[in-house]
Please model this.
Amino acid sequence: MSFSEGHKFSDDSKQHLAQIIDNINAGIWEYNITTKNIKWSVGFYTVLGYEPDEIECSNHIFFEHLLYHQDKPAFLTALNNQPSTSTQPLQIRLLTKQSGYHWFESTVKKYNDETGQIIYGSIININQYKQAQIQAAHNDLVYSEALKIAKLGSWELNALTMGLSLSKQFYDIYELQNHVKLSLDEVISFFEPPHRPVIKNAIDNAIEYCQPYDLELLFRSAKNNVIWVRAKGIPIINDFGKCITIRGIIQDIDNKKRKNLALESSLNLLTDQNRRLQNFAYIVSHNLRSHAGNLQFMVTLHDETELPDDRAEILSHIKSISDSLSATIEHLNEIVQIQTEITNERTVVDFETVFKNIISALKSNIDTLDATITYDFSKCPQIHYIPAYMESILQNLLTNALKYSSPERKPVIKCHTIKERNHIYLFFEDNGIGIDMERYGDKMFGMYKTFHQNPDAKGIGLFITRNQIEALGGTIKVDSTVNIGTKFTIRLV
Model:
């Protein structure tokens, strides 16, 4: 056995080299194009699970029985095109004796000798490595799909350099097509302005005090979509207890968050409605019982009285009590009607048309008080609403503004609407006598709640107005200052 000079080997050296290869789970093959003679080393048989000469050493066996049919074109291309100096390996599948197809890595080279053109190469069993590679690729795919389904992206912040590493899913949530490198300030800038200091403080605390955080914040993507996201970060510390890295996730939770907010809002509305209904039932029960008791007393007194003048006076009291009872029942009917009319068809309501009609109806009151009424519905001229509700709301507000105007100045009443995102707001403002909010703020919209000595005050108008607004999913709030005026802010839808 001897090796020749340079890169050339003697026949003994080639045989020795084949023996070495045979012992490392690999084999070599050789094919003489001119003579059609083919040779397989012992290792070639061994890596396939065969003993030498157990299967026929031929092109037919190799291509028709051993080589997986889908890998045949690639192997033939390598045979035909492979330059003599190329070392690019080829991955193919060969059928083993007992374990089915295994992955092999094969080299293909050419050279010429006195017998003709020779093609030769080696095969190495890489099945274990290939299976691990396929499994890793599958795991990566499953992991990536899981993150995609969960709408979850990951990130890592180096606390020393403040450099960020962002996952592909992170960019997907940000709706950034190009995976440009982002700074921490740029990442934070995508959050809505009120939430930017929240996330910034959370990251600062994680770095400074190693405090983890888990927040739900509003976020605006690159495509201007405003969504709720969950931002979570966990500090990674060194041996000295200092934060060196923050690892975290950002998750699109918009659907779930909005459902929870809607559910919470509905629950609050139902709780409030239930409280008001209980209060209403108590008031009605109390008033009806009071009227019934008074009537019973007056009837008994009438029966026991003999003087005609006294009986006439008692009858007048009975009539007064009867009128009051009738009014209470009428109020009850109005409240019940609000709930029954919720299902009425909503149509397009023109604010200016409705408001002008109400001003015309109240013209004598307006002229008497010399009130100035201005309105501006240009920013939101119309709304899809129940017309009777809108008319009732505007009429109650305008009637109250006139009724509770200040005797020290002429009434100035302003009304306007705006549209903000998906909501329509109505603002109604006057310079009347105002309400002591500290004293009556929690009773503003209660039934039979009055806050002034006005003899026309019954305490039912605002109660009905609030019920009508909330019945259609809106809200109403009031700001008022005694002797300055009152402002109602109404979110209609």
About this structure: The longest strand covers residues 226-237. Residues 1-9 have pLDDT under 50 and may be disordered. The longest helix spans residues 254-304.
